[in-house]
């Protein structure tokens, strides 16, 4: 699966885009540069996949429709393909930038050696896109049959049935399904590929400012993966990354307008497709960038009209053809235009800053940010170096502006200027979340201008300083990206593969209550109609009870009657957590999850209480519950607590740099924790760690290593994530636990989350499901003297 998703999939995706790009080129008159074919093909495929899913009955055929179009493009343009191949041999540097951009963008996953996706725990919007892409390719843009009583149906309905932009999702789903790939593992390669195709138009713009060969390759690469763009690619901002390639494509089409604006009407097809793809991927807000590009073309049309009486009629035909293509390629958006505009307005005006605690710094637009995250400012030496590199970039941008103006390249200068004005205007009238996105999508433009400054130096008496400036621009971007790569959290592959196996094993047997908080479960358990009161869209019957958003479900707080709607409950395997009510029995257990099934005909509890505290305190609660029993006949059912040996972290010996946080420890530096504990009996014990642990930590007892734990992360950084256990044979009595984090490593995620919230032991021989204790209410005293999770009063 790793090779299929990271290496085979991008090749197939490239073939689809190039084949479709060849067809677009042929239909528009055969004038497109070869480097623009992948982006033009992606635009065409977005329009095609939008149409195919808009017609719901043919939605499952979308991958094959896309393939047929790409094959047709190759078949009809074989002579053109041979010419392009010959030119590529003459210019071997051209493929360097997109290939390196893909490898850099996917570096955390590639170097982890397993299928995954990056920046886990940072932003879970990618879960919505995975779920939505799967739904759209199976059911199309039809939502009438959705079950809105659970979280899955509500997510799909509230996002995609409100004209939420889905252009990137349909291209993603259609291309992934062609190889039968799980979308969760194809997601990051897709984002890396869509970023990589932006290197093509970036190269053409860089060549326009006066660079070619290895200079152009270096410039195109740094313009494609500047710090802020790289950070957004890592968190899977699929809409923005896709739109970025379309923005640069529009820029190229603007500066190449003499090739098509003065020709036949079909010359407008590439521009219209890029505009439609941007609108489909990003929403109506992409219209700002389309208008900026169209303004330059309008000026050119006016100038042509003054020189040629036939030009106005030619322009009208061109505009008409472009309008038709734009209308058809983004038809789902135009048919629900009012909703699309409302979505754009809601996004632009939302007070929700997403994963941003504070607005981004404006200076981040210059492509350098020597920090572990684009969300936080660098500190110390990193801050000083960042400021110096930004100052160098600003000087290079100033030189670049002068270069473009002196070259009298007014279309390019106008497009640069209007793109910056779009950013400033949106920044003035939108909120933190949108400001950050527009800042990111403007960054490549400023970086290209900085490389125009390099071109200016190469043609000046100071040409010997050009390599130094190029080194500073490249080094700043690569160093910034390396720091983000190092601190990225990689999604836990094994846990999600197990969740996928649960979906396969129990498909169609839902609805299913999911007690953990993990929005990626919406995709992995999509065949179980999954829901939970801790999701953003919680089931109406459970809303407001049992959990807060992002926190695990407390089953003992859920109404018994509401639980009857859930034949299945999926819980994390955690001996310290409460088991489901007595009406459920354990059906399946894996390394990370347990699946509980409701016994047919099992009546809901008449009353129940959660038990905690000492056995004496619990006994008083048992007495009160027994007093509720009526004459109709009930019994008390109690769930015994597992025998748990808790190791207190606050009293443990630890490095000074490991600060206490949220009831746990931040293992931020190299060091070792040491803590004593006592087990009541000899035998085999399981050691359980609770925390978000990305870098590898070594666990030992009494100086003997037990094993290592790493890349074990939960769905939310603020809750406890119970890792898989490590077994150890112990004698009764006192022992010493050690947990060590190693030093610096180049491994992906080695600088990621390392938060430890708890450590406990359980007897490895204990059954996975503690037998329930059942007694008549009159014998309630027999339950005293032992610890229980909860107790229910159940009809006989």
Task: List the keywords.
2 domains, 6-stranded antiparallel β-sheet, 796 residues, Jelly Rolls, 19 strands
Please give the structural blueprint:
Layout: H1 2-27, H2 37-54, H3 62-76, H4 78-90, H5 96-105, H6 107-112, H7 125-139, H8 151-160, H9 167-178, H10 183-197, H11 199-208, H12 213-224, H13 227-234, H14 238-255, H15 257-260, H16 269-282, H17 287-307, H18 311-329, H19 331-335, H20 337-349, H21 381-406, H22 410-429, H23 432-458, H24 466-487, H25 493-506, E1 512-514, H26 521-524, E2 530-531, H27 560-563, E3 568-572, E4 584-589, E5 593-598, E6 607-610, H28 615-626, E7 634-640, E8 644-647, E9 659-661, E10 664-666, E11 671-679, E12 683-693, E13 697-701, E14 704-709, E15 726-730, E16 733-741, E17 754-763, E18 773-775, E19 788-795
Parallel strand pairs: 1-2, 1-3
Antiparallel strand pairs: 3-5, 4-5, 6-19, 7-18, 7-19, 8-17, 9-10, 10-17, 11-16, 12-15, 12-17, 13-14, 13-16
